[in-house]
Amino acid sequence: MPDYIGSDPDPGPGLRGDERTVKALVVGHMGAGKTTMVDSISEIEPVKTEEAMTDAGTHIDRADLPDKTTTTVAMDFGRVHLSADLVLYLFGAPGQARFFDILEDLARGALGALVLCDPRHLAETYPILEVVEALGLPYVIAVNEFDDAPRYTEARLREVMGLDPSTPLVSCDARQRGSTRDALIVLVQHLLTTLPEPVR
Ligand SMILES: Nc1nc2c(ncn2[C@@H]2O[C@H](COP(=O)(O)OP(=O)(O)O)[C@@H](O)[C@H]2O)c(=O)[nH]1
Ligand SMILES: [Mg+2]
């Protein structure tokens, strides 16, 4: 696949009428890097719905992220051209279990999902995988390689997350545009191989 994603960082906020659009989700547990990922790749100023985390939420949300002062309460939204006439709309969906109904709403019309996870909190990905699978969305796992996170072999990651051999697994640095682009290319390639041919 040609390296179109992100090749034109400034196509402007408007879209031409002849462009085709693909909707995909970026899902993952809280702190996995969803907002960071959408920020790193979007050609438009990403729409964020971050809210300051309140004391009331500290027992529910992750208390072990002392530097994290905001959390996504509805979604992140970004846009990136996959090619001159193919546009990917990215919806970052909140990871906390109490927002799963939002995830289900966001999944309408989505062709697939990038499931982002932090290797320090692999177990937090299970409930998200359950929802993504229940929604019937094809997905790719992207392990966000945080600096101080353990580096597992692919075999170990697959075993721990119980991944089907056909599910692509990539590692990425969500802060890096090129790395995010590579992960999204794997997702789109996966969608091309899993989605049925369009009816003519
Ligand atoms: N070192 C490192 N930090 C990251 C990476 N991705 C995200 N972060 C940081 O991890 C924190 C949580 O990321 P965020 O995008 O808000 O997670 P979200 O809850 O999934 O939207 C933020 O402070 C990010 O700056 C990464 O790849 N490497
Ligand atoms: Mg977020």
From TrEMBL:
Q: Which SUPFAM superfamilies match?
A: P-loop containing nucleoside triphosphate hydrolases
User: In its keyword annotation, does this UniProt entry include Nucleotide-binding?
Assistant: yes
So where does this one cross the membrane?
A: none
Q: Which UniProt keywords apply?
A: GTP-binding, Hydrolase, Nucleotide-binding
One short Pfam family name for this protein?
A: ATP_bind_1
Name the family the entry cites.
Answer: Belongs to the GPN-loop GTPase family.
UniProt protein name: ATP/GTP-binding protein
